[in-house]
Amino acid sequence: xxxxxxxxVQQLTTSxxxxxxxxxxxxxxxxxxxxxRRRSPPPPPSPSxxxxxxxxxxxxxxxxxxxxxPPPYPNWSVTDTKPLPYRPFRYGxxxxxxxxxxxxxxxxxxxxxxxxxxxxxxxxxxxxxxGERCVxxxxxxxxAAVELLEELGxxxxxxxxxxxxxxxxxxxxxxxxxxxxxxxxxxxxxxMAICARLxxxxxxxxxxxxxxxxxxxxGAILLPGFWRLEDKFGMGLSEIHTSGEVPQxxxxxxxxxxxxxxxxxxxxxxxxxxxxxxVDDELAWSWSIGSEDRKEIGGWKEAEKNRAVExxxxxxxxxxxxxLPRSGGVVFTIRTYFHPxxxxxxxxxxxxxxxSAVRSWGEDVSRYKGRExxxxxxxxxxxxxxxxxxxxxxxxxxxxxxxxxxx
Length: 407
Description:
Elements: H1 6-15, H2 20-39, E1 102-103, H3 116-134, E2 135-137, H4 142-159, E3 164-167, E4 170-173, E5 179-181, H5 191-198, E6 202-208, E7 214-220, H6 229-232, H7 237-243, H8 249-263, E8 269-278, E9 313-323, E10 330-340, H9 341-344, H10 350-360, H11 363-369, H12 371-391, H13 399-402
Antiparallel strand pairs: 1-8, 2-7, 3-4, 4-5, 6-7, 6-10, 8-9, 9-10
């Protein structure tokens, strides 16, 4: 005989006359049924619900995913489209060290603007002068570098049709007149160098080896400001950051970063922003911290202290990360936005918020970002600009209505 359901037993408790014996019988029946169900084995999982075995380290099965072609960037112009006003700093009093990842649309993978001619010229000069030190691709990352070139060859003509044109395997830059045969074998130069000529970003590819670690095995790092590819090439993800003395990397960033690299899928794309201050106006290499050609980089101790604010530059990176579907390599794009502080501080709410952010840096972050060399001059200027904005009637209570991170 089948056991009654819980609902039937509950109905029984309401339909039996409320005598002590009847109530006791109903309660015992309900308890017995609950105990029976708890002890009954769960139904076997369906084949589709079974947990997939973990992917072996260093092995990647090519995915059939293809990055969707983006719509054209609205009204894009190599002369008129201004850089996006990234201002990725927050009010203090506490500075939080986090990965700061956010999901972005694949349409927005690469950002180009009317600074393209300068970036293109700077990259061409750097490739001619020191290309072998700024562009490197290990044999095991060659396929990933070629895949990146092919991906850019599909994406750029669709997103920026007034700048790039695709005809068969030929990719043409309509502004510079350059032509790139993407299918040529061998390619005329390292695929990472060709990729670098196409965009304003620096580029890096991390490859997983059989120890589960991700290694920097392909890069075109031409406009880095403060670090050199030749120092980091071949390093694992953790060593790259610890050798650069990134604040609180071990305590707050390493585990999450390693998990992210392991799990990121080709159909996912994330971005993050950071910011620095610089006391010279050279995009490619901040000469104020010492010569790029020295064996050891001098660092902030080399920079002239308290240079006039007119020499201060606001340097912000917008990085994207995604996995290449065929090779499994993880691609960093590193787009640097570079503007004079006196220009950035003209934006509503910016000087007060930036001053608060700089003051929120702990000792380790301050040392990493070099605040001791410029902080006094910078903060005096930002405080004055903030006071001017308040005096002219800027409503501080409306800031969250008119802007949102990372702008």
